[in-house]
């Protein structure tokens, strides 16, 4: 029986959309270079893993780009509330799950700015616990961060339902015994149907 629902953050609870950010901040001729230097960079992964600060990451990311882009890259990375608005339709789902007695947890690859950012996501008021990759120097889809979640909150994998937008993260969850749903298509009705198939009261 499912007792706990575990959410990813970007692409599930907040609208993290690098392509939209690139279009909002840069003309077409610069987007590929900025994508490669920022979102696809080693520094982005190191931020999530807590190995470097956001400021250090931005300094290295921008060093590969024309100086005229430095300020706009900084805005894109630092103005998190504007770049990652809550997915409004998820709020009532989280609220209903909490009201129906489920434990609600977050398992996210995210730098340590999360604790300031979380104030901007109303659904987080219903959460019972947060596992943020930067706190543990571990990231999904590696198994260790899932095991940290289980241990810290005394969760049994077979009693958890995990929602993430990356198939690799879903694969690890299922390998460890969790039920899981890939939300890459952002299809709320399909998510609810899958929950109901898992006898979750939603």
Write the layout of secondary structure elements.
Blueprint (H helix, E strand, L loop, with lengths): L3 E4 L10 H8 L2 H10 L4 H7 L5 H10 L6 H9 L1 H4 L6 H10 L3 E6 L5 H4 L11 E4 H4 L6 H10 L7 E5 L2 H9 L3 E4 L5 H10 L5
Parallel strand pairs: 1-2, 1-4, 2-3, 4-5
Plain-language structure description:
The protein is α/β, with parallel strands linked by helices. Helices cover 47% and strands 11% of the residues. It contains twelve helices and five strands. The chain has helices at residues 18-25, 28-37, 42-48, 54-63, 70-78, 80-83, 90-99, 114-117, 133-136, 143-152, 167-175, 188-197; strands spanning 4-7, 103-108, 129-132, 160-164, 179-182. Strands 3-2-1-4-5 form a five-stranded parallel β-sheet, sandwiched between helices. α8 links the parallel β2 (103-108) and β3 (129-132). The longest helix is centred in the first third of the chain and has 10 residues, at 28-37. The model has no long low-confidence stretch (mean pLDDT 96).
